[in-house]
Amino acid sequence: LDGAPTASRPAPKRQPARHTAEAVAEITLDEAYHGTTRVVEVEGKRLEVTIPRGADTGTRIRLSGKAPGGGDLHVVVRQRPDQTFTSKGATLERDLPVTLDEALFGAEVPVRTPKGRVLLTIPAGTQPGRTFRLTGRGMPRVKGDGHGDLLVRIRVVLPTDLSDEARDAARRFLDLARQ
Fold this sequence. Notes:
Elements: E1 21-27, H1 29-34, E2 36-42, E3 45-51, E4 60-63, E5 73-79, E6 86-88, E7 91-99, H2 100-105, E8 107-113, E9 116-122, E10 131-134, E11 150-157, H3 164-178
C-alpha cells in the first residue's frame, strides 16, 4: 500500500466447536396432522422429541444443547407415504372413485379427509380427472395459521362384467348420447 506500518490486531478468540448430531424421526400422515412425539437415540442417549402439527418430510427440529458434548441435536422428520393422501406442504391430494351414474347424473359423495368425512357435491356431467378444492381441509401449517387445502381428483369407475342386456342398453344409451 503506501508503505506505512500497520498495527496488528489480536486474532479474535474462537469459541470451541460444539458437536452437533442428527437423528431421523419417521411419522405417519395422521401423526403429522395432529402432532406427535418420538423417542430418538443419539450415541446411546434416548430423547423424547415433540413433533409439531403439520410437520412434513424435511422439517428440522433443533434441540439446543441435547447432542453429546452439549451441541445441538437436529431431528429431521420423514413422513411415510400414505395410502390415500399425497402431501405437498400443507396441500393434500387424493383420488376419489365415483360410479358412472354419480358422474353422469351428479351426487353427494362422502370424502374422507384428515379432519373427518365431508359431503362433496359432484355436478352432473363431471369428467374423469376433474379436481375439486376443499378449502382448509389439508394439513395444518407449521408456521402460520390455518390449514392447507385438499385437492380431490375424480376417478370414474366403470361397471365390469355387464350382462348381455346391460351391454345392449349401454350401446343404445351411447347411440342416443352421440345424437
